Amino acid sequence: MSDILKAWLAEEVGLQLYNVEQDFASGFAFGKVMQTYGMQPDFDKFEMKRSPDAMVNNYTRLQASFQKLGVKFDSRTANALMREEPGVALRLLYSLKQSLSQVHKDVQKFQHTGKLGKELGATVPVGRALLDAQQHNSQKEQYTTAQQRFFEESMRKNAGSNNALMESMHLRQYMEEMYRLERRAELGGSKERMAATNARSAFRSGQLNKMERLRTEKTKRLDHDDAVHAALLKRQSDLEREELRIELALSETARRKKLEELSHASLDVSYGIDAFEINLKRLVKGNGGGGG
């Protein structure tokens, strides 16, 4: 129900509603609204019950008041209200509020122009009596009475037996409970689907984070391995360079030693030749001295 209707019913009529279909189903609340605006002089005959007979009584009395206000109301609408069909009570309340507001405006216009007595023939208080005075016509009254009688008969015919109407009302309660449970199941299913979607999203996000972490760790590990490999290559290169230096040094040492040995051998040969020549000269001299 809109806030405007709630405020109107609470402030103007004094009705605090919780479920508009249930609260207006018996017709008693509509009678209370009419009585507040002086449009239901027989409100004391209304019954605040939910039995079929009480409802038919209330709506039969309301039909005449609705008709005088120009609010569309027939037996089908009344039966829909008794069966608490959604939206019917709200639409009727809107129409009723508009009609009551229009009646109030018309009365203010007549009072302001001073034509109230001329139009009605006498000063009539605002309410049902005012509408009766405006619509006074013997033939029209007969038609209205016949229409009310037809309305009541039609309502009782449509309502059927008391058991049928009560069964329909109870069945509606079960249907509402079924719809409520179905709605709860749908909401529960939606929550479960949402939870599953969130779980999948969380799992996917976790897997992506895990993959990113593994990729980062792998990159670090590869960088570390590359650094270790480069260090090993450098160490190997340094070792090879050192081995080559040592090998060259040893080779140079061996070469020098060999040259030194050759030099010594050459000196030995030279010394031997010199000694041989000296000895040879000595022998030659010795032989020459002996012959002389």
Which spans of ≥5 residues are poorly predicted at pLDDT below 50? 116-124
Secondary-structure element series: HHHHHHHHHH
Provide the structure class. Answer: mainly alpha
Cα end-to-end separation: 172 Å
Whole-number average pLDDT? 79
- What's the gyration radius in Å? 62 Å
Strand content: under 5%
Number of helices: 10
Most strands sheet: none
Based on DSSP secondary structure assignment, what is the total number of beta strands? Answer: 0
User: Outline, from the CA principal axes?
Assistant: rod-shaped
* Helix content range: over 70%
Pfam families: CH_2
Domain Calponin-homology (CH): 1-101
InterPro entries: CH_2 (IPR010441), CH_dom (IPR001715), CH_dom_sf (IPR036872), Sperm_flagellar-bone_growth (IPR052634)
Protein name: Calponin-homology (CH) domain-containing protein
Summed up, what is this model?
This protein has about 290 residues and is mainly α.
Features:
10 helices; 292 residues; mainly alpha
Notes on the protein architecture:
It contains 10 helices and no strands. It is an all-alpha fold and 292 residues long. The chain has a domain at 3-160. Helix 3 (28-36) packs parallel to helix 4 and helix 5 (75-82) crosses helix 9. It is rod-shaped. Residues 116-124 have low confidence and may be disordered. It comes from Chlamydomonas euryale. Residues 1-101 form the Calponin-homology (CH) domain. InterPro entries: CH_2, CH_dom, CH_dom_sf, Sperm_flagellar-bone_growth.
